[in-house]
Amino acid sequence: MKPLLIFLLFSNLTIKASAQDTVGFKNLSAYVGRKVTVIMPVLNFDIRKEYIYLYMGGWYPNQTFTAIIKRNNGKKRIKLKTDVIIGRVKVSLTGYIAKYDGEPDTTKNYDDVIIKKEFEKPQPMVVVAFNLHGMMSKKYEPRTEPIDLNGKLVMLITDQKQIGNIYELDLPDPNYLPATWPNFSSESVFEQ
To answer: Which domains does the chain have, with CATH numbers?
Structure first.
């Protein structure tokens, strides 16, 4: 009886594990209508009264994918870390991929002072080609025009359980220079 119980337990886990895939940018459109997990950095965002839009794979309106986070689901409020919203980390999101065919969101921007303050905070940066280190800051300018996602790939997040682990961004090693780059010594520049 115990071997049968163990077999049933593992076969159930296998079925659950194969019920959803972790997918990347390149093959995302092949998963329309299927439940998947995506792990991508946010490049741009919009915060409106009812939804947070996280643009991935490009800046709006040329993004590859948009996660639409419903801010309030009945009495439950979905919590999303500021570092996820402004793209300092990657997040795991699970849900169904769809092509958006609804109306543009014309609601007013939600003025989130915490997001604005965190977005504008100076961040360390590295120009890898020159091995330069410094600080960079950006100005937060909320989008005022309607958000039109018609025909775009989206995932609607309506439950806190759909938001999974957070991962650090894969940043290049600032000390790495590819071996294939030309040698820009003074002798090679002036050779004819």
So the answer is: 20-173 (2.40.50)
